[in-house]
Amino acid sequence: MTEKALSGGLWNKSNFLNKRVCGLWLIWVALVIFAGLMAGGKQLIMMPVFSFGYVIGIFGILANKSLSRKLSYGRPTKGQNRMLLFSIILMFVLMVLIGGPHFADENYRRIWLGAFLAIGIHFIPMAWVHGPSMLVLAVLLIADALLGMLDSSLNFRLIAYIDIGVKLLFGMYLLLTGKPLKKAQTETPLSH
């Protein structure tokens, strides 16, 4: 799928050079979900709080070139960039399809669980961008969302806290262990 993202069927850690940026993003999103959950109300996770925090994170983390230079060990391949774009588009399409229909009846539990499920699913193709740990993250987030969808007696806050906890743990893991075992011969640190 990507240039050398898989080597002989095994993951080649030297090709996942931006895991620390992903880790910081996961930590940020977990904190934003927590803030939205605390503001809660009828929407369970207050959408204006979540939306504002999400946009701040996009500009403060993902679009921040200075921060990317500090956290990245190289540029993603073209294949990784394509997979990243695919997973983001997939996430938004799934959010609309799974949670979107519930805006009509204001079933915020279903809206947020649909968003959690879409986000979990979008981490599957992210494995080609940030490594196989994304598959474990995906499975845990998908299971959490499905549990909340299948058992309506479960308190939404519990499902949200599990989602937050998983994102925090994986975010810290990626942020602290994101250094490749060895830099690929053809890769150079970001210099822009």
**Low-confidence region ranges:** 1-10, 183-192
Oligomer state equals single chain
Mean pLDDT: 88
Number of helices: 7
What is the number of strand segments? 2
How would you describe this structure in keywords?
192 residues; mainly alpha; two-stranded antiparallel sheet; 7 helices; 67% helix; disordered C terminus; transmembrane; membrane
How would the blueprint of this fold be written?
Blueprint: E1 6-7, E2 10-11, H1 19-39, H2 47-62, H3 65-71, H4 78-98, H5 108-130, H6 133-150, H7 156-177
Describe this structure in words.
The chain is mainly α. Helix content is 67%, strand content 2%. The protein contains seven helices and two strands. Helix 4 (78-98) packs antiparallel against helix 5 (108-130). It is globular, with a radius of gyration of 17 Å. Residues 1-10 and 183-192 have low confidence and may be disordered. Pfam families: DUF6609.
